[in-house]
Amino acid sequence: MTHELNKDYKEAASRGTALADYRNIGIMAHIDAGKTTLSERILYYTGKNHKLGETHEGAATMDWMAQEQERGITITSAATTCFWKNKRTGIKHRFNLIDTPGHVDFTAEVERSLRVLDGAVAVYCSVGGVQPQSETVWRQAMKYKVPVMAFVNKMDRTGADFYKVVADMKKKLGAKVVPISLPIGAAETFEGNIQVIDMKAYRYNGADGADMQEYDIPEDMMDLANEYHESLIENLADVDDDIAEMYLEGEMPNADQIRVSLRKAVLAGKLIPALCGTAFKNKGVQLLLNAICDFLPSPVDIWETQGMDPVTEEPKMSYCGDDKPFAALVFKIMTDPFVGRLSFIRIYSGIAQKGASVINPRTRRKERLGRLLQMHANSREELDEVLCGDIAGLVGLKNSTTGDTLCDENNQIVLESMSFPDPVISIAVEPKTTADRDKLYAALGALSDEDPTFTIQSNAETGQTIISGMGELHLEIILDRLIREFKVEANSGQPEVAYREALLKPASHDSKFVRQSGGRGQYGHCVLNVSPLERGAGIVIENKIVGGAIPKEFIKPIEQGIREAAATGVLAGYPLVDFKVEIVDGSYHPVDSSEMAFKIAGSMGLKEAAKKAGMVLLEPIMKVEVTTPDENQGDIIGDITKRRGAIESIEPQDGNARIQASTPLSELFGYATAIRSLSKGRASYTMEPSHFEPVPKVIQEKIVEKTNK
Asked: Is 366 helix (H, G, I), strand (E, B) or coil?
């Protein structure tokens, strides 16, 4: 396909693949939908791997961590580069591929991967359909406006239903899905695909399915194929004026015209093409690879990336091209046993050259680009330069972390960073021996650098180190990595819920901090109005001072004091969230006023105003989905209700029931054991953080009493 966009950019002479033929893509899905198996098949068909690695055998290339191989799940997003020659056009494309985790505890890995990808393949299980984590990754993709295509996997499984999954996507995700590949058969009779655009059928021969053979569409499926071909054109007519005009004049667009139109619709986020197959049985993957080339964007399609000028804070664009000023985003930090601290970067413009000096606008410090590495899961290849549109590993960054921009010193830009959810679960850890203390803190610091959803804090009163994360599995993996990778033995306490505090109503406080102790005193005075905000709004601080009652240089310290007080909470030591503060009045002393005095006044002011406003504890509510045999349905529902859960829906599924409920996290510790005993091991469940809700008064009183002892 010739590239339509005639953008003003130049490509380096050393470039092997044209920018228009790059595809930066991610594979995303709910846990166990077959993402990693699909990634392994992509690596096999593109010639990157010469042997098929299986997840269930612990041999998948992209699941290289010991913990991933033991559990058969993906924990960290793995990046690799491979090449695919589109069988239809003959054009060779370069894929930068990221396989992301499906387990909700590792949602940060998905978030940061989607931020730097140009397109994504959402994988769905043909039996399970749209599951909770499928919805989460979908929302993440929509947030970053990432064009998506769908692949319905596991078509060889009993109960496989491609059309039900498509309907599920439309209903639960509100997605405008257009099937472009239909299954021939299902479960054990699944033998191939009908390609709707070209109206051709394909079957896959040989043990590895590499021999893709074209044949006529089976007669009994001809009507269905025609129906979906026409439906595709109707959907395109809704979003493309050229196709609409042809359609109204009774003219049918040809396959090439359909492809051009569908590509435009996918890039604009208006349509989601859906394909199907079974990665495990090697069917349908090659059609998916061709479709990635045809419909997902190249860096040139994305073309401009929104940023901000670090000096003026005005919007500023970074444009694609090797000849443009250098700008890259650090999207992941990893501790590598061989090279040390490894930073993953996506280059949006310009070229990264080994040894070059760049600047980090956040820290305003220069960084030297040390070794440049092209990654293949956990193996690496050294490079002298990395070109625009590429994803690479970088050794040598000292002061840059996840979400930081690296750019040309003479043309500075801050690219849009990433936001991550707050941790919902905490445990106390301590070193087993005094000798291990420094090693433990260094290891926790390195793990916190890697993972923005893993936080560490010290409890000043108890002296304990508290680590927080997204779930029990998340913290279990952290503790496991401490022992295996960092050789540190640590004792850990029982998991505890990471509550939040919130205000009930508006209030004001006149806060004065005065110290006279001979010599120069301390004087800080501010009047604060506080009010609650809706959930997720964060902390908003507004300076409403008029007439210079407080000099400008003391406003920042007041803000710092407010934020520090909010972090340690007022009611029970949990962070105070979602509120607004207006600094409305105050006074200062020409000699005794200092930044420290105003910081303390701000901190005291927030705490006193919050007590006047009244406080409530918020607890994390989890979205729980249980799949259980019908005969255990009553027991499971009764157990959820006992755990303060609210049943939201029950869907029948071939002798099973799928129950969706909202349940407080505090009631779900050890749920895996409970559900196994209730169903004799036959039920399974998934859960993900949903939102925060006020804790019932009786429970709040107990928590406050316990923490304030």
From this structure: strand
Mention every residue, 6+ apart, whose C-beta is less than 8 A from residue 317: 304, 305, 306, 307
Q: Write out the two tokens for 701.
A: 């009183």
The 10 Å Cβ neighbour count of residue 253 is 19
Q: Which residues contact 263 (CB under 8 A, 6 or more apart)?
A: 1, 294, 295
More confident residue, 232 or 709: 232
Helix spans in 569-670 (H)? 595-613, 633-642
**Higher local confidence (pLDDT), 382 or 596:** 596
Beta bridge partners of residue 543, listed in sequence order: 583
Most confident of the ranges 60-69, 156-165, 444-453:
156-165
Angle separating helix axes 285-295 and 35-45, nearest 10 degrees: 80
- Tell me phi and psi for residue 181, to 5 degrees: -145, 125
Global pTM reads: 0.70
Q: Is 478 left (phi over 0), alpha (psi -120 to 50) or beta?
A: alpha
Q: Per-residue DSSP letters for 509-550?
A: EEEEEEE--SSS-EEEEEEEEEEE--TT--EEEEE---TTSS
Average pLDDT, the chain: 85
Average pLDDT over residues 116-127: 88
The total number of residues written for the chain in this structure: 709
Q: Report how far residue 563's alpha carbon sits from residue 677's, in angstroms, rounded to the nearest whole number.
A: 46
> How does strand 119-125 pair with strand 148-153?
parallel
- b/e string for 575-605 if b means 16 or more Cβ within 10 A? bbbbbbbbbbbbebeeeebbeebbbbbbbbb
- Between the alpha carbon of residue 531 and those of residues 18, 564, 619, the distances in Å are 54, 18, 20
Phi, psi for residue 260 in degrees, rounded to 5: -60, -45
As a whole number, mean pLDDT of residues 15-23 equals 89
CA–CA dist 686, 598 (Å, integer): 48
The pLDDT tens digits of the residues spanning 527-586 come to 999 999 998 889 999 999 988 899 999 999 999 999 999 998 999 889 999 999 999 999
What are the start-end ranges of the E strands in 176-235?
Answer: 177-179, 181-184, 192-195, 200-205, 211-215
pLDDT at position 102 is: 46
Burial profile 531-553: b = 16 or more Cβ within 10 angstroms, e = fewer: bbeeeeeebebeeebeeeebeee
Query: What average pLDDT does range 208-218 have in this prediction?
Result: 84
3-state DSSP call for residue 69?
A: helix
Residue 267's φ and ψ, nearest 5 degrees, are: -65, -30
Angle between helices 222-239 and 255-267 (to 10 degrees): 50
In the DSSP assignment, the letter for residue 321 is S
Residue with tokens 């496991």: 480
pLDDT at 447: 83
Sign of CA dihedral 367, 368, 369, 371: negative
